[in-house]
Specification:
single chain; alpha/beta; Arc Repressor Mutant, subunit A; Rossmann fold; 3 domains; 7-stranded mixed sheet; 31 helices; about 45% helix; binds S-adenosylmethionine; methyltransferase
Length: about 700
């Protein structure tokens, strides 16, 4: 296990490029963090673990999940494994029983369910759970898929286009959405107002007798102000459908009209710092892209933009106070302007300062799917291709003009997606010394996102790219099932993808678009993996091997590369007939259609890449036994190229391995990524007593299995 990587055939530069590749995998699947967190909240795992007397076993947690007719502990385990890696929960081995025990953390305390609304808000807790549920609800998550269309065509923001009206008008018509939105707002209102009152304190409301909270939702924000300053008359102003669901708070009047008077306006909103290092600055940039997806015209603003807005609205003076919250405090009519002024006082204890970090982590994971969606948007707009093929850095308007099939390219929308991707180091930006304009450039990371030339049998003409994989894993077909993880853990049955579309490879057989999506995604990773494998395992692997069959070989790219490197090898690409029918011809490769669970064509060696992870143990044993028959008793071997999960591993691809396992949970009934222990058990059961695992700098490892 973890045998030394052989040879140094790949140069240092290529080693660095594995890191770049790993970064792309990470962002591609970042939405998995958001979905796993949402699943945990839906199952009430934070509540279960925080209210327990001590750490709990897996089966105890599963049994405590409410409304779960058939709780699936083994599925739950896989979501927990990811969340333990993210430090949302803890796990430790029980010294006596050897069982794994799970516990809560300060991070998970931000994900507790609220008690039913009450006018005594002290009885309530500080939680981001309602916000997380709202932002990861399909209503809010789906519009992100349409970012590229919005940048190409303009018009209404994707959410509004989908809802057919403004978000707030939809809330007026739909009580469920109204509740989702208001609860999300109320939970962040409590957090922000407490931070604000601790950090700005008495100065802020000096000499003020009444405060109106404009768009105050159900009134939690103003109620906290009034509670701290009982002399203040609080007015909560919002639309009637919101006010109608607002609880009563002492000292607060809910109204539908603004009283007029002087004083000052206190804006609590994000101030974007594109390169900021503050704990909430990153989320601020992601939130701006969220606004792009949700609200036509809505955006998060930089200080410059706030200033302009205030100038135009008759507020010549303002002061911004950064507080340890997502939003800053932006006050007009103040003498000084102290952007990023020191946080006042030490009213909050050190412990609470640390809790801002925890809170920021939760925001990050909650919105991590924004990274995946921004990257997908960039690929759909062909931004990597545009920037890599340019003679030099490009201006925003040059990039916008170069987007293909864009009847009305929206440079200002594009700017916001680019700002996030520059922060993620996918692209670069610099100021042109002469014109002062921002110039954008490509990076080594973005070189992993180029479009492939049309398929060709000369695979050398093609490039190494993860773009087709990114497009597939972020397609609604593949993302939607993640929303159903908690239901799957509660009820069992078919994996969410299969429940919706049927078994993945049957769906491909019926749906040419999906067939293409899947085969292209597989082929792009096949090229990357085989090149890494050949460089790192080299001649040893195919010593004395005259023929190789690639089982579940897709359209044949993997075996074609083996044959190209070892032309004496007779290559057989074996897959189902709907896949074989779209496969290009490769010299030295015979394509054979069939069912691997019936029979596998004979050869000296079998390779099988990313096939066994699709299946449960029983079918894997059946398939491996067929492979064993295919290679005969003597000399042959089966070369499995698949992920070996290292739950705490620090290898560049180990994190993605753990996320990928949850992806398998969402997509394939029985499918999973396996640890070495699980591989060993599978091989033992299938008649392979000996095996060797070679780690290569790729998502998958190489497992050589010998029948004797
Ligand atoms: C995840 S893909 C991997 C493709 C390829 N090995 C790669 O990594 O690029 C799994 C492949 O198994 C194939 N497959 C599924 N069921 C099969 C069966 N019963 N017989 C043969 N191939 C099958 C699918 O069509 C698909 O091409």
């Amino acid at each position: 296990m973890a045998a030394a990587v052989k040879g140094a055939i790949l140069a240092i530069d290529n080693e660095a490029s594995f890191q770049d590749q790993a970064e792309i995998w990470k962002y591609m699947l970042n939405f998995g963090d958001s979905m796993a967190l949402k699943c945990a909240v839906e199952l009430r795992l934070p509540d279960i673990l925080h209210s327990a007397d001590g750490p709990m076993t897996l089966s105890e947690i599963a049994a405590a999940i409410p409304d779960a007719p058939s709780p699936q502990a083994s599925h739950l385990f896989r979501v927990l494994r990811l969340l333990v890696r993210r430090k949302i929960f803890t796990s430790q081995e029980d010294k006596v029983s050897g069982e794994t025990l799970y516990g809560p953390t300060k991070l998970s305390s931000w994900l507790l369910h609220e008690p039913a609304p009450t006018s005594d808000s002290d009885a309530s807790i500080m939680t981001l759970a309602p916000m997380l549920i709202s932002e990861n609800h399909p209503w809010h998550a789906n519009p992100w898929h349409k970012l590229s269309e919005f940048i190409r065509e303009g018009g209404l923001a994707p959410l509004e286009k989908e809802l057919g009206c403004l978000q707030f008008d939809f809330a007026a018509k739909n009580p469920l959405y109204n509740k989702l939105l208001n609860n999300a707002m109320a939970c962040t209102a409590r957090i922000t107002i407490r931070t604000l009152l601790s950090h700005c304190g008495d100065d802020l409301f000096n000499g003020i007798g009444s405060v109106v909270d404009v768009g105050g939702g159900t009134g939690r924000f103003i109620s906290e102000i009034v509670k701290s300053y009982p002399h203040i008359k609080g007015i909560n102003f919002d639309r009637p459908h919101v006010i109608s669901t607002a609880p009563t708070y002492p000292g607060v009047t809910h109204v539908g009209a603004i009283p007029e008077k002087g004083g000052k306006v206190i804006i609590v909103d994000i101030v974007v710092e594109a390169d900021g290092k503050g704990v909430f600055d990153d989320t601020g940039v992601v939130f701006d892209v969220l606004m792009l997806a949700h609200n036509t015209g809505g955006k998060e603003r930089t200080e410059k933009e706030w200033k302009s807005l205030l100038d135009q609205s008759g507020f010549p003076r303002y002061k911004i106070t950064k507080i340890p919250a997502l939003q800053s405090l932006n006050m007009d009519k103040r003498k000084e302007k102290t952007m990023a002024s020191a946080v006042k006082g030490a009213i909050l204890a050190i412990d609470n300062e640390a809790s801002f970090q925890d809170q920021a982590e939760i925001w990050k994971y909650m919105l991590n799917f924004g990274d995946s969606m921004a990257l997908k948007c960039a690929v759909e707009l062909r931004l990597p291709d545009i920037l890599h093929s340019a003679d030099g850095p490009m201006t925003l308007s040059e990039i916008a003009a170069a987007i293909p099939n864009a009847p009305s390219p929206q440079a200002s929308h594009l700017f916001r997606v680019l700002r996030l991707l520059v922060r993620r180091k996918i692209f670069t930006s610099e100021e042109d010394k002469v014109s002062g304009e921002t110039l954008y450039g490509p990076t080594k990371l973005s070189s992993w996102l180029l479009h492939e030339p049309a398929p060709t049998s000369d695979s050398d003409a093609s490039i190494m790219t993860l773009a087709p994989m990114l497009i597939m894993e972020n397609h609604p077909w593949h993302v939607d099932p993640w929303h159903k993880l908690s239901e799957f853990i509660r009820e069992g049955g078919l994996a969410p993808f299969e429940k919706e579309h049927g078994y993945m490879f049957d769906f491909a057989a019926k749906n040419p678009l999906y067939n293409k999506l899947l085969n292209n995604a597989m082929a792009c990773t096949a090229r990357i993996t085989i090149r890494t494998l050949l460089s790192h395992c080299g001649d040893d692997l195919f010593n004395g091997v005259g023929s190789v069959v690639d089982v579940g070989g897709g359209t044949g790219r993997f075996i074609s590369e083996i044959v190209k490197s070892y032309p004496h090898i007779k290559g057989i690409n074996f897959d189902r007939s709907h896949v074989i029918s779209t496969a290009p011809a490769y010299p030295g490769v015979t394509h054979i259609g069939g069912d691997m669970f019936q029979e596998v064509p004979s050869a000296d060696a079998v390779v099988t890449k990313w096939v066994l992870h699709d299946w449960g143990d029983e079918l894997c044993v059946k398939l491996l036994k067929n492979c064993r028959k295919a290679i005969g008793e003597k000399g042959g071997k089966v070369i499995i190229v698949d992920i070996v999960v290292e739950a705490d591993g620090e290898g560049v691809f180990d994190d993605t391995g753990v996320v990928f396992d949850v992806l398998m949970l969402a997509h394939n009934t029985g499918g999973k990524e396996r640890t070495e222990k699980e591989w060993k058990s599978l091989l033992d059961q299938s008649g392979f007593p000996r095996y060797k695992i070679t780690k290569i700098p790729a998502l998958q490892s190489v497992i050589e299995a010998y029948p004797n």
